[in-house]
Specification:
The chain is mainly alpha-helical. It has four helices and two strands; from the N terminus they run ααβαβα.
């Protein structure tokens, strides 16, 4: 299941981590665990407990980061 489908169920801290790291293509175990805890969805993991993001997931996260950046500039 893609990040876009899980986004609204993620904790704000997890969403912020993803937005702060929009170029990350491999999620660390701690982020994978936070996603699983918040959504009940187990992402596919490698032997190290990390998850490789799909190109669509990466694009979604970059777009979310750009939107947040644009919103913060409007607020300034």
């Amino acid at each position: 299941m893609g990040i876009d489908k899980l986004w609204d169920r993620l904790e704000p801290e997890t969403r912020q981590w993803l937005i702060d790291n929009p170029g990350c293509m491999i999620l660390p175990r701690s982020v994978v665990a936070a996603i699983a805890k918040a959504t009940g969805t187990e992402l596919e993991q490698d032997r190290h407990g990390e998850t490789v993001l799909s190109p669509g997931d990466c694009e979604f996260i970059r777009n979310a980061a750009e939107l947040q950046d644009a919103d913060s500039r409007k607020s300034s």
